[in-house]
């Protein structure tokens, strides 16, 4: 029985041309050798299985070649490989530095390849520093690592660093196709693509997976055989799921998810793959982004066809829901229910081709149309007031000026419509509704003012204003609005013409007064019989200094109100 050699060893690159996906690095090394511009300390870093050690061996062999050697000539005596994972002590490095002094017996250079160099101990790194900085002319060090961040900066500064990149899916697939041809294996393009994706950028992993799948399926490599052997979800699963989601087939969708779980797949894997599928469909919506779709040619056609069925809004919402489920999956106590709920939400995004309203309690008009019911349009107050009818009736009474709770709009052809005024609902000054304070005030003014030209504008002064001002504050206290009453009592109003100026110590007071200024202005205008009155509020943080905060300041404030407090403190010898 012939001894089997795995593809990763059998097809290990022997020249720089054989190295897959690292053209920039191999070209740089070739030029450095040709121009005699090679550094004496090199660091190869990058993910696993991308060709770091292979490039180090090829480089070690090439720098000792002068073109006159025979085919069977070996430079093994000039190449020393050290595994730093198992030889990471100071004694190992000292032994290496002792060998460095001996010149090569064959060839021009002695090359030391130290693999997994990040595993060296701190003391070993320090023992290696001087030799690495000033090695003999006949010596070249090549360090290889997958974790460059673990190497101390003093080592990094002495090396010429080459960052190896991950092997792209396209490059890995092309190389697998070459290997399949060398071994006489018939392989579908999609099958090789799945293997390249599963390898996650590592060529060695791709070759290992290739050997495993070939052992399973023989000389004919199909997409179905690859998906079964690697236990990956097939594209067809996601195409079917998306079709069911677009058709709002929730029962069939849940059954398909159950079948997927019964095959041994994880719900987390399924929902993450569905989000990626939506992403690929969105990529197909624009011709300029189609190259971002890393799938086989046959599968790409299916993506392009399905992307025409799904709208961009649906895909964006679908990615959002699937990603949210992905984030919550690990912390969920009922993970299956979480995924099923996400699938039901995805299947409910569309309804008869139109997007559902995010407020679930609003029934779409299409529902009534199916039942043969014609929806009655809602008439807004402005629309009712401006309806062009032969006999238009507008009821505007004096009570409408005084905060109407109910406004009516009547036309000749339509029955009266009662419109509730919800603006009287009280809310905190720190609530979100305070942001719309000015808009509410303007809208209330529009609703209540009947004829501005005939409104009274009698003159008044500060002596007329102050009694009315205090009366309004007392009414607020009687109605339980202590907060607004205390805020209005902070500053004494100043009058310039018909504008009342107030100054508060912070913006919270200003917002609270602006939010409820409608009642204040109506009361002042009606009491003083002048509808030109306006309110101007400013914030001055220096005003806060007039208020007492410390215990001594509070005590002094109380003394101003009642001097007998000092007598009480002295009588009982009290502390502040």
Which outline best applies? flat
State Rg.
Answer: 41 Å
Question: Beta-strand percentage?
Answer: 5-15%
Give, in spatial order, the strands making up the sheet with the most strands. Answer: 2-3-4-1-5
How is this fold's topology laid out?
Blueprint: H1 7-10, H2 23-34, E1 41-45, H3 52-62, E2 79-83, H4 90-100, E3 110-115, H5 122-133, E4 139-145, H6 153-156, E5 160-163, H7 169-183, E6 186-187, H8 189-199, H9 203-217, E7 220-221, H10 223-230, H11 235-246, H12 250-262, H13 267-283, H14 297-307, H15 312-328, H16 335-347, E8 350-351, E9 354-355, H17 365-370, H18 381-385, E10 406-409, E11 417-420, H19 437-448, H20 462-478, H21 482-488, E12 494-496, E13 499-504, H22 507-515, H23 517-528, E14 534-539, H24 551-561, H25 564-572
Parallel strand pairs: 1-4, 1-5, 2-3, 3-4, 6-7, 13-14
Antiparallel strand pairs: 8-9, 10-11, 12-13
Helix pairs in contact: 4-5, 7-8, 8-9, 8-10, 9-10, 11-12, 11-13, 12-16, 13-15, 15-16, 20-21, 20-23
